[in-house]
From TrEMBL:
This is Cyclic pyranopterin monophosphate synthase. Pathway: Cofactor biosynthesis; molybdopterin biosynthesis. Substrate binds at residues 75-77, 111-112. The active site is at residue 126. It comes from Arenicella xantha. It is an enzyme of class 4 (lyase).
Amino acid sequence: MTNFSHLNAVGEAHMVDVSDKDTTKRVALARSRVRLSAAILTQIREQRLAKGDLLATARIAGIMAAKKCSDLIPLCHPLPLTNVTVQIEEYRSGLEIIVRCTTNGQTGVEMEALTGASVAALTVYDMCKALDKGIVIESTCLLEKQGGKSGEWQRSESQEND
């Protein structure tokens, strides 16, 4: 049995060897929320931001980030993603970004989904920072994962309220 740890036998960081793991369909959903002022939300809705179409730009940024996850996160495996979707909707006083990543592989896509959600949120900040430097990116988290040895996992309501 392979030890799936980022530390080798002498305690040094290394990439986990997943070659003995089964190739299965793997899916992960992650979320980031961005708190924005009512004035900025109005400009987004009316597509009046000076930097252009925020929603389209943030979607593309999220997809690109998920695809480049292994270049950004040390020891993360490069994965052939079969699909990445980025949904952005208004949520309370801001935007909620949900990224869904899918692959057929030997390791999960949680990091790809989390990276995509984070970078999409950072893109929202970048496109709106001239209007308000006090924008807050919050509650980036994994919502759900499917596939692999550990099977299904979904964020519970009690975890939502933490």
